[in-house]
Each structure stands twice: as structure tokens, then as C-alpha cells.
Amino acid sequence: MPRLRKAIAVPTAIVASAALAVTTGPAALAGSGSDAAELPNELADSIKLGEVNRHLTAFQRIAATSDGDRASGTEGYDRSAEYVAGKLSDAGFIVSRQEFPFVYFETLAEELASGGEDYEINIMRYSPSTPEGGLSAPTVAVPESDEPGCEVGAYDGVDADGKIALIQRGACTFAAKQEAATEAGAVAAVVYNNGEGPLHGTLGAPSGTGIPIGGVSDSAGAELVAAAGEEATLDLRAITEERTTYNVVAETRTGATDNVVMAGAHLDSVVEGAGVNDNGTGSAALLQTALEMGSQPDVNNAVRFAWWGAEEVGLVGSTHYVQSLSFEEQLDIAMYLNFDMVGSPNGGHFVYDGDGDEFEQPGPPGSEAIERSFVDRLSEQDVASEPSELNMRSDYAEFMAQGIPVGGLFTGAEGTKTEEQADKWGGQAGEAYDPCYHTECDHIGNVNRGILMDNVAAIAFVVGSYGLSTEDVNGLAAGESASHTERAQQRAVQLRSTKQDRAGSAHTEPAVS
Predict the structure, then answer these.
(1) Per-residue pLDDT for 483 more than 80?
(2) Where do the domains of the chain lie?
(3) Catalytic annotation, residues
(4) d(CA 106, CA 448)
(5) Cα–Cα distance for residue pair 152/106, rounded to 1 Å
(6) How far apart are CA 271 and CA 264, in angstroms?
(7) How high is the pLDDT of residue 205?
(8) Looking at the keywords, is Protein biosynthesis present (predicted)?
(9) Are strands 350-352 and 406-410 parallel, antiparallel or unpaired?
(10) Helical (H) or strand (E) element with 489
(11) Cys-Cys link to 334, which of 253, 437, 470, 497 (CB 3.0-4.6 A)?
């Protein structure tokens, strides 16, 4: 059982934007006097495992000395954020810290028993708690359909009053399933997976008067449904309270600021562990890419790196960031690249399905080009990849919702590796890509460093390439974008020129008409 931590107050000085004066940092790759076109390859070749692993070690030790985790709203997260921010400030980046409120959630109990069997269950984030000691009630199966348990009408002919509803995953949000089950009179809900493996989920926000809700695997669901009507005991309890945390954002001092290449990774862990794969790997890969690129690289487009807070409790930090931007500021972002778990121990090489060919959910226009860029780069590294669904489970979600092209890499979480994938990538078929997903064992030993470095090379190359040109994504070739600063400078020159022309005209003869 996790220990209860007190809320960590974020000092005002920490949250304020960093000074914009240029600080001393490592020289940018492909800088003055070098061929800028070589930046992507130089960047990919420059990143070494020892440097990336050092960041992972830092995250592990921060967690080990901060109650065992790096969850947002705790000392472990704040120390992780300042580790990242300090490295970037020392390297000369423009660094800012964006504070935001969120609802902290910490699990206290997750138990389900029925028919003499104990089942693994995961409380949905923001679920209300059962009474201490749990509740007991008969189970009732909600009929499987195209929209299972999504509306109260799904309970027609089903007596759910005072019972624990068993609902198949799919077609709607967990919050919608909870609302319908509550309206039908159920005292709790258990959602079972519609694919292999355990089920983790979130309601997105505290549910007020809703019932407790948790998730189980497909196999557990099949057994529970087969025995529907039996008495079950359910104990789901958690702490839910308001806290504050912050994002860390760093931008290069070179490149057009109205055609920004943005790349991000969530920095927070769950409260159950250190989160070294989820998402220390993405955070470390992004940090070392930024440090190797340097704060003043020879690029045409500014590159903005972000480390998000409170991803694990509903994508709160990235959503807050995007929604805090004006429409014009959103237009300045050419694309968003997301890196969430890029070193899973039994992982695979997944690229977000930007064109929707595999999962019928494409990203905004331009996303298909980003997918091709990652697929092609991995192929050049002799790495075969597969598409990964844009299922809105990571920090690209709000960027995608606002029409910003998205893409990125992923190596798998609770899903199960197939025989075909094991033949292609190695590892163990029939086991989870990350058996320690959202658990205490997601520590420094829970990383496949070969997979991680394959991905780091691809991340560095693609980020560097788009720093030079985003033509395949939005049609802007190298040098075709003028930043706000450049336009302001051009306007000032034009105004001065106009004033000089007017001053000169007072001393010349008028033109003959």
C-alpha cells in the first residue's frame, strides 16, 4: 500500500519564468561554420547510452529518496522537474515553469473477491471510494453490444439495483459507463477489458455522486460474467485532493518562432513507483536530445521541448498548456511529437498511426508525414515498426483536438506481445510489453536499453530534421517562415525607411504630373 504524502507547495520563485538572458551552455551541433543539413545525423549520432542512462539513474534516485515515486504534487516530481530545468537552463535554453492546479489521486485499496476467487482490479482514477472495508453485493452482467453500458438504456431488462455491474470496455468513456450504471441503481461498476491484459482507466475528473468503479482483465471479466449473480466483495479506496504542480518548457534561441517544432514527454510517475520506463525513458530521451542540440542550433524553426506534469491523472499538464494558448499561439506550433514509454523491457517499436490506415483514427492533416518520417528513420536503422493507435491516452490528445499535427513513438504498456512481434523484435510472446506498468517494479532495471537507444536515435534525427524544414507537414520549406521577432524587426526597418524618405522629400522638387 502506498504511503500517504503531504501536498508539496511549489514556491512562487520556481514557477516564475526563467530570465531570458543568454546563459553559458554547450555549443549547438551544426552551428556556425558547419553544414546545417548534417544536423539530424550529427544529432542522432552524438547521443550516447551513458548520458541517457545517467538521467534515468537521477530519476530513480530522486524517487528512492522521495517516498518511492515521482508523482505530480509530491517532492519526487518537483525534484525531477528541477533536475530537468536546471540542465536546460545551464545549457542556455529559454526555460519556463507553468503552474496549474490538479486533483491529486492516490490509491489506498484495490480488492475484488467473488465465488471464493480473488481478482486483480485497478481503481479508475478519480473514482469515489467504497466504505472502509469495502462493500458486498451480487454481480449483474450488462449485455455486450456495440455500446456496452454506455447509456442507461443498456440496462433495459437488467435488474442492477443494489448490485455490482459488470460492463465490457469500449465505445464510450469510463465516465459515461459509470454515469449510466449509477442511474441504473448499481452500487459499483467493474469494467472488463475488451482485449488481452489488465485494464487501467480514468474518469478524467472527480465524479461527484457517481459510484465506485474499477477495471479488470478480459479473462477475469469472462469468469465474473459467467458467474453473474454471485455475491462479490469490492474494496476500492483512494485519496482525492486539490494540489498544484507545473510543466517545464524549454525553447531554442534560434529558429522561427511562428513555425515551432514541439516535442514533449510526461515527467510524472504514478504513486505506485519510480516510473523509470513510464515515463523516465521518454523524459530522458527528450532531455538528452535537447542538450545535444544545444540552445542555439543552426535551425530554421525554433524547437520547443516540454516535460508535462499530471499526465498520469488525466493528461492535465499538456491539456492546460494547449488550452492556455491563444489561437494565434497555437498556430505558431507546426507539430507536436510525443514520447511516452520508449524503453519497455519486452517492448516493440510502435509509431503513432498518423494516417489512420491501421486504426481508422487519423491525426490532423500533416500527421501522416510525421508517421512516415519515424517509420523511414527506424527502417534506416534496420528497425521494423508497427502503427500504434491514436487513442487519446497520452499527451498528444489536446494538440490533436486543436488540429495540430501529431506523431511520436511508443514501445508498449500493458498490452501483450504476439508471436509475430516476438519473432520480429525479440522478447517474450504472450507477456506484457511492460510487465511492471504502473507498479512498484518500474525501476531502473525495467528498461530495455537497446530499444531505448533505437528510439533515441530516431527521436533526435526527426526532431533535428523538422528543425530544418516542416515542408512535408505544413508546406513550409526551409526559410519560408518569418518569426514574430523577425517580422517586428522588418517592420521597424520599414518604418525607419519611410520616415527617412518623408524627411528627404521635403528637400526635393515635387514630381511632374
Answers:
(1) no
(2) 38-93+252-500, 108-238
(3) 311
(4) 28
(5) 30
(6) 21
(7) 83
(8) no
(9) antiparallel
(10) helix 484-505
(11) 470
* Low-confidence winner among 24-38, 257-271, 345-359 (lowest mean pLDDT): 24-38
DSSP letter string over 97-142? EEEEEEEEEEEEEEEEEETTEEE--EEPBTPPPPPTT-EEEEEEEP
Return the biggest CA–CA distance within the chain.
105
Report residue 495 as a C-alpha cell: 518604418
Does residue 18 or residue 437 have the better pLDDT? Answer: 437
For residue 278, the tally of other CB atoms under 10 A from its CB is: 28
Q: What CATH architecture applies to the domain 108-238?
A: 3-Layer(bba) Sandwich (3.50)
Of the listed ranges 284-288, 396-400, 419-423, 504-508, the least confidently predicted one is: 504-508
Decide the pairing of beta strands 256-266 and 231-251: unpaired
CA separation for the pair 124, 278 (Å, rounded) = 18
Q: How many CB atoms lie within 10 A of CB 21?
A: 7
* Contact yes or no for 292/460 (Cβ under 8 A): yes
Residue 50 reports pLDDT greater than 50: yes
Phi then psi dihedrals of residue 251, to 5 deg = -130, 145
Contact 276/452 with Cβ under 8 angstroms?
A: no
Q: How far are the Cα atoms of 43, 44, 92, 183 from residue 288, in angstroms, in the given order?
A: 10, 11, 14, 50
Instruction: Please give the average per-residue pLDDT across 78-104, as a whole number.
Output: 97
C-alpha cell at 61: 534516485
How many Å apart are CA 356 and CA 362, to the nearest integer?
A: 4
Helix (H, G, I), strand (E, B) or coil at 399: helix
Cell 507537414 belongs to 473
The CATH number of the structural domain formed by 38-93+252-500 is 3.40.630.10
Average pLDDT score over the chain: 89
Mean pLDDT is lowest, of 19-33, 231-245, 329-343, 486-500, for 19-33
* Residue 238, beta-bridge partner list: 107
Residues in the chain: 513
Residue 166 and residue 155: Cα distance in Å, rounded? Answer: 11
pLDDT score recorded for residue 511: 28
Average pLDDT over residues 34-44: 87
What pLDDT is stored for residue 207 in this prediction? 73
Do 135 and 234 touch, CB atoms closer than 8 A?
A: yes
